[in-house]
Amino acid sequence: MSIVKLSIPKFRLRTTIVIPFVLQIIAAVSIVGYLSFRNGQHAVNVLADRLNGEISARIEQHVIGYLNKSQNTLWLTKANVLSGNLNLKDFEGMQRYFWQIVHKGNFEGYLSYGNEKGEFVGVEYQEDGTVQLKTVTSETIPQRETYALNSVGDRQKFLKSAKYDPRDRPWYKAAKQAGKTTWSEIYPFFSSKNTVMGISPVSPIFDSQGNLQGVLCINVRLTQVTDFLSHLQISANAQSFIIERTGNLVASSAIAQPFKVIGEGDNRTIERLLVTQSDNPMLKATARHLLEKFGSFAAISGSQNLKFQSSDGGWYYVQVLPIKDEMGIDWLTVVVVPENDFMGQINQNNRDTLFLCLGALIISILLGIRAAHLIARPLLQLAKASEQVAEGNLEQQIHSSAIVEIATLSHSFNHMTAQLKESFAALYQSQESLRLANEELEARVERRTAELRKEKERSEQLLLNVLPASIADRLKQTNESPAEHFEDATILFADIVGFTSLSARMEPLELVSGLNQIFSAFDQLTEKYGLEKIKTIGDAYMVVGGLPISRPDHAKAIADMALDMQAYIQNSSSLLSESIELRIGINTGAVIAGVIGIKKFIYDLWGDAVNVASRMESHGKPGYIQVTEATYQRLKGDYLLESRGPITVKGRGEMVTYWLIGKK
């Protein structure tokens, strides 16, 4: 019986070492490259969605904030009309009021009023920083006269006269048709040096029989929104735009003028641009994709994250976010970012990586061949000794070689076996040291976490010292706090009598210290009675009851605090080194409350009730608490009040007031 010997393939050492090594490098580079590209693509998608979402939110916040500024001004103006502070028949008084808002308030707009007779008065902030008066009176109908106003609101120079009827303007028609406060359609403002598009919050004014008297209007230029979009830093080729549900452009970062002007002079007309007919390829492609996906712009509801491929093969990330408000604004803000803005650098890095890997592969092959040639002979001896060490026999010694590198390797191997012996002995000690180090690290982390928690609590407490708790919570959650109307609240003003002369006689530090002690005591009283401190101005102190959270006993709480304030001053007359007295005024009525500004903001009140409360203080007597008829009706059952009788109040005429003496 013959024995068949199997033929085992044999390979050269250089082949055995180099080929597997090369294959591993190729496989590793391929896998890493693929995963890197895929993960990079995923990261880009996530980054693009987040970036677009943040940009869209910033645009929405800016637009709503910009429009709310005009809304709040309109509401405040209408409140003054309804309260009787602003007489619609007194055009001179209205001119002064409008000028105060436009000039003093740095209001970049056009505040105006037109009535059913065709009369008109308006004050407009110009692009060059000047302010103009435009008026149509019964004597000048139908001509509108334009005057330049000086720094105190007086007519400085006659500029021009032109035919004008407010009843034919889009803003007047919008208010008349709606019958309530609303937004006009977007229409051209020809009064500016350059034709611009704008929109107007408008509010009709009715008489007691429900007949329309006229319309209050504020022109809001949309060029400010365009400027904001054009200055947004998104990416190299990204664009953002705002459209109406009809597809008409409102503003765009790439199109400075989203409309066409046809004709010249008084014969000019405006043609709105449809985003689908834009000359900008990116805007047009994005709009057509939205129409293909949703059928119409009106069908888009809620925030949308999209990605599409245009006809030129490029991919784009799109974020669509509706912009709405309670008065009827219903727009869409769209942010478009080309994928190449994100992927360009990634693709270049992938190419660089490929070239580097190819270079490393070639070098590895050459080094592998050379290494195989040098280590072929002593390799077997080293392999056998290594097997013995792996089995636990550390008494292995490799003889030196004539090759310097192999000799070094032999020496290292011998040294390694000696070190292994020592390492096993030191292993337990090292593990114990590592455990102690981990415990120390955990303790540091816990201390740092506790410090961060204290800082957070401290920051929140600082915010609560500035704003009411409910308003602070709303700002932290939504970053906005719109003005709110409170139908019933009680306001208190207190003033230190003779403070101006007192400040001239005392050292500043002593004066401030005394004021701080007095106002700190008053602050404790607001906490005691659950009231809301609004502000202090010099020696004046303002507090309100019944907001931001309504309560039925706000008038009584204010009365109790006023009596305690009076008692405190009487018992602490030496706080400012002299005998001092308080003059206190209280009124009850409707107010508007909210946060003003975005930096160093405060929670403040507006309304006729606030003005009357201030008059009660300024028209009072030292050491007395003066209240209005409205407050008297709330307190007369539980408090001792004495009629002061009718007094003449600035801006209000004759009023009946009372002295609050104490509790029954």
UniProtKB/TrEMBL annotation:
Catalytic activity, EC: 4.6.1.1
Lineage, broadest ranks: Bacteria, Bacillati, Cyanobacteriota, Cyanophyceae, Pseudanabaenales
Cellular localization per UniProt: Cell membrane
Gene3D superfamilies cross-referenced by the UniProt entry: 6.10.340.10, Nucleotide cyclase, PAS domain
Coiled-coil residues: 431-462
Family named by the database record: Belongs to the adenylyl cyclase class-4/guanylyl cyclase family.
Record GO cellular component, one term: plasma membrane
GO molecular function terms attached to this record: adenylate cyclase activity; ATP binding; guanylate cyclase activity; metal ion binding; peptide receptor activity
Catalytic activity field: ATP = 3',5'-cyclic AMP + diphosphate
Membrane topology: Multi-pass membrane protein
UniProt keyword annotations, A-Z: ATP-binding, cAMP biosynthesis, Cell membrane, Coiled coil, Lyase, Magnesium, Membrane, Metal-binding, Nucleotide-binding, Transmembrane, Transmembrane helix
Annotated TM spans: 12-37, 353-376
Oligomeric and partner information: Homodimer. Can also exist as monomer.
Name of this chain's protein: Adenylate cyclase
The Guanylate cyclase domain, residue ranges: 490-617
Biological processes annotated in GO: cAMP biosynthetic process; intracellular signal transduction; receptor guanylyl cyclase signaling pathway
The keyword S-adenosyl-L-methionine is annotated on this UniProt entry: no
Domain HAMP: 373-425
